[in-house]
Amino acid sequence: MNAAEPSGNCVGTATFTSRQPSIFVDGDGKLQNASKEMLYAEKGEFEMMTVNSATNVPRFSFSRKYVWRFQEEKAAKPEISIWFVKPGTEQIDYLFHTFHVQNVSKTGDSDNCVVHVECSGGHLCVEDFYSSNYAFAIHDQPDGETEESILKSWNMLHEVRGPKKDQVIETTFTRA
User: Fold this and answer.
1) Rg of the chain's alpha carbons, rounded to an integer?
2) Separation of alpha carbons 51 and 64, rounded Å
3) What does pLDDT average to over the chain?
4) 17, 68, 140, 157: CA torsion to nearest 10
């Protein structure tokens, strides 16, 4: 870890909102289409770790939006791409990264089944490489005539290595 970079904890909320998939031409001139699309929005407060806990702890607000796009027809393994959003809008700007479903497993019985989905991917950002892993826990909840799946929790881990960055960003999301 780079001691010169701020470290700390974030606490906040994150939401996914389903929406009609966007069709657009990306910066490389490729037509982008998806099977499903969700707007992801996060906001909260970052509290920096300090050497001396007697001093005032620096805090600041954060917020960010991304578009998550699910593509099941294009690849042998389903893939999810995450796109930055143009500031002040909900429109797709440019690609953050793509990751692929690596493993799906189930635990529990038909009344209380949990589906575990593991995904991974990576991308080069200038000269720094982001290696990313995601793990989702989805509870299948039978409710009579229909079955509803509920995302209960997920973890995200980004390891960033390169000449400018040496950091680990670990995030755990749990349903309120």
Assistant:
1) 18
2) 28
3) 85
4) -120
Spatial separation of the C-alpha atoms in residues 113 and 141, rounded to whole Å: 8
pLDDT at 102 over 80: yes
What is the CA angle 137-138-141, rounded to 5?
145
The model's pTM is 0.80
- Mean pLDDT throughout 48-73? 82
Q: Fill in the amino acid letter for 47.
A: E
Amino acid identity, residue 165? Answer: K
Task: Give the closest residue to 98 by CA, choosing from 142, 32, 151.
Answer: 32
Instruction: For residue 162, tell me if it sits in a domain.
Output: yes
Number of structural domains the chain divides into: 1
Long-range contacts of 103-110 (CB under 8 A, 24+ apart): 110/142
Does 2 fall in a domain? Answer: no
Query: Residue 12's domain spans which residues?
Result: 8-174
Q: Which helix (H) or strand (E) holds 105?
A: strand 92-109
The DSSP string of 40-96 is EEEEEEEEE--S-TTSPPPEEEEEEEEEEEEESSSSSS-EEEEEEE-TTSSSEEEEE
